Known about the structure:
CATH superfamily of the largest domain: Glycoside hydrolase/deacetylase
Number of helices: 9
Number of domains: 2
Low-confidence stretches: 1-7, 18-37
Number of strands: 10
Mean pLDDT: 89
CATH topology of the largest domain: TIM Barrel
CATH class of the largest domain: Alpha Beta
Oligomer: single chain
Amino acid sequence: MKVICFYPLSTRAKLIIALSLSLIVISASIAYVQATSRIKPIYEVKTNEKVLALTFDISWGTQTPTPVLDILEENQVKATFFLSGPWAQKYPEIPRRIANNGHEVASHGHRHINLSTLSPDEIKQEIMQAHNILQEVTGTSPKLIRTPNGDYADHVIMAANECGYQVIQWGTDSLDWKNPGIEAITNRVLTRAHPGDIILMHASDTCKQTVDALPAIINGLKEQGYRFVTVSELLTMGEWSR
């Protein structure tokens, strides 16, 4: 039979063990605080009402935005468009139509770069550069921004807030930017949409299947009993989910 012997620990050994345990507890506490205190953007709104927001990012091209706007107008759906500054400046007639059709104009920043790589002052410069263009072109003053590539960090969100902006992400990604097929885009949205959802789509020319998928998405969501609102309207209908 194997005998297990326990030897008494020295005072020094006890101190080392106690110190190690203390360090583990402190490290875990710091990690917990960092995880829970991280600033996050808005992904959706908590509500039982069957409302959601269709959103479109645009940073390139002129072929896709017009048919998207035509489809929304035909179906009497209002959406939120996140527009990049340089694109809006280059093609001002489309942002003007977006605003004139009653859609919400929001910002997609200026340069299409990850803002988390910039300093707070540089981030503010990027945001305000786009803001001034969108304001001049559309006559509206955007208050929502979807950062390029959806990239964010604490200092990005803080800088945006200091510029008077709320950072918006999405609850459902249509993946139309991958061009996975019209049916794949449609099915993904219709199976994942939920009350208070913010749905990510694109109206840049690189997304070649959005126009064909959009009518089925709108009709399918209406059949499920959903009502379409802008993101700003949605934010008034429940608690924000971050």
